[in-house]
Amino acid sequence: TTVYLEQELHQALRLKAVVTGRSLSQLINEMIREHLSEDADDLRAFRDRADEPVVDYESLLEDLRTHGKL
Questions:
Q1: What is the pLDDT of residue 1?
Q2: What is residue 21's DSSP assignment?
Q3: How far apart are CA 3 and CA 65, in angstroms?
Q4: Which one-letter DSSP state was computed for residue 51?
Q5: H or E element, residue 68
Q6: Residue 62, φ and ψ in degrees, nearest 5
Q7: pTM, full prediction
Q8: CA gyration radius for the chain?
Q9: C-alpha–C-alpha distance, residues 8 and 32, integer Å
Q10: pLDDT digit string, tens, across residues 11-63
């Protein structure tokens, strides 16, 4: 697999690899796993909240005003 990185990102990754004693591949794989895991967490949160009522923005503002929050 070939990945083309911006020069600055490539340099930062190379430096991090040296400092941490890991390879570029290890760093990239770890970062991708973390990112995909965050996506999975977000999707789970959306699914968990799917049955919550939807409040439109104007109603939210009115409720905040009514309760002295604005």
A1: 85
A2: T
A3: 51
A4: T
A5: none
A6: -60, -40
A7: 0.61
A8: 22
A9: 18
A10: 999 999 999 999 999 999 999 999 999 999 999 998 999 999 889 999 999 99
